[in-house]
Amino acid sequence: MSTTTDSIRGHHSILEMLDRALSRSRLPHALLFSGVAGIGKKRVALHLAQCLFCQRTPPNELSCCHTCDSCKQMAAGTHPDLIAIECPPDKNILPLSLIIGDDDHRGREGVCYEMSLRPMVGDRRIAIIDDADKMNAESANALLKTLEEPSANYLMILIASDLDSILPTIRSRCQLIRFNELTQEDVASLLLNQQLVDTEEQAQQIARMSEGSLKTASELLDENLQSLRGNITGLLGRHPFQPQTFSDAVIQAIDDVGGNTGAQRKTAMWIIKFCADFYHQSLQCAAGYQTVPAAEHVERFVSGLPGEVEDRIETIGNLLGRMLQTEEQVHQNVTLPLCIESLSQDLRNIQTK
Ligand SMILES: [Zn+2]
User: Fold this and answer.
1) CA 131/CA 41 separation, integer angstroms
2) Whole-number Å distance between alpha carbons of 72 and 38
3) Residue 55 CA, ligand 1 centroid: distance in Å
4) How far is the centre of ligand 1, averaged over its atoms, from the C-alpha of 26 (Å)?
5) How remote is the CA of residue 300 from the centroid of ligand 1, in Å?
6) Ligand 1 centre from 171 Cα, in Å?
7) CA 56 to centroid of ligand 1, rounded, Å
8) What is the pLDDT of residues 256-312, one digit of tens each?
9) Average pLDDT, integer, range 27-54
10) Per-residue pLDDT, 3
11) Most CB within 10 Å of its CB: which of 167, 220, 268, 285?
């Protein structure tokens, strides 16, 4: 994957820090990038590697030319001095074989072996170990041996979304760099730049619920989830609100996921987020402080509420509060159908009080 600082959002202070470290020749031999999934940690790691490998820019600058052989190899993912590993999608643990080779090649393959070799092209080898928080103790201890023998010839970048799962012995040998979540604006512009959405409105809508993570945003782009969102918020905006229709639709959507309770709870959580977002939009619309024009169904819902502006704002505030309470309940593993039924009744009562 080719990288430029343009494609990296929201991490300018980290880029500056890395640039300063390079200019003073003080880049540690091991870095640990931590922060929630889907915010660009690996992108920054690849950018750093490309800048270090680039044959045209000075090694003490965080910049690359995009035209030399090394830059082209980085763009194609074929640079011989880059060793990048990650947990396969169907596994929960980063396989030991990726660290020290499989049974037949123990000590002759894997990151530890690769990092003991001389650089093939430039002056160093770089390993990017994504999902480092998914190493078991055996893998971590094997990696520790390599980390304990720092060499000017290598740089290791460990990437983790769950810092607590990294052994203290590993952590203490790496320079920790914490990444913040992306802003809503950053997520929206990344979605547009990467052509994951067609319109600004869509980008904003997904970004609002992304919790600063492009990974969460990508999940939200799922067609089924988007059509579910349309259905549910459609029912929510109806006047008068039909509690039975609403709870039937929600429970059906949860049932459609199948028997896996984890997946059911996740779907329930998405639905509640969709509802909370709908009320949040309604609140902004009612108060007249939205930055972009409210969606039509939001406007219709707000204007259909009884009373003056203040009454409407109070009602929507209560609806939103009830939704946030439900979010907490789902986190606490309540029985979903019961929780949804009682939510539906309360939503009606709040609107007809
Ligand atoms: Zn270059």
Assistant:
1) 11
2) 25
3) 5
4) 21
5) 55
6) 31
7) 5
8) 998 888 889 999 999 999 999 999 999 999 998 877 777 888 999 999 999 999 999
9) 96
10) 52
11) 268
Delimit the domains of the chain by residue range. 5-178, 222-352
Tell me the two tokens of residue 18: 């890395």
CA of 78 to the centre of ligand 1 (A): 14
Task: Tell me the CA–centroid distance for residue 57 and ligand 1, in Å.
Answer: 7
Q: Separation of 63 CA from ligand 1 center, angstroms?
A: 8
Centre of ligand 1 from the C-alpha of residue 11, in Å: 22
Q: How far is the CA of 50 from the centre of ligand 1 (A)?
A: 7
Name the one residue in this structure whose structure tokens are 């986190």. 331
**Closest CA relative to residue 235, chosen from 256, 253, 211:** 253
Q: Give whole-number Cα distances, 158 to 123, 177, 327, in Å.
A: 20, 10, 33
Q: Give 52 Cα–ligand 1 centroid separation in angstroms.
A: 9
Q: For 162-185, what is the mean pLDDT?
A: 95
Position 162 scores a pLDDT of: 94
| CATH 3.40.50.300 at 5-178, yes or no | yes
How does pLDDT run across 220-264, given as a tens digit for each residue? 999 999 999 999 999 999 999 999 999 999 999 999 998 888 889
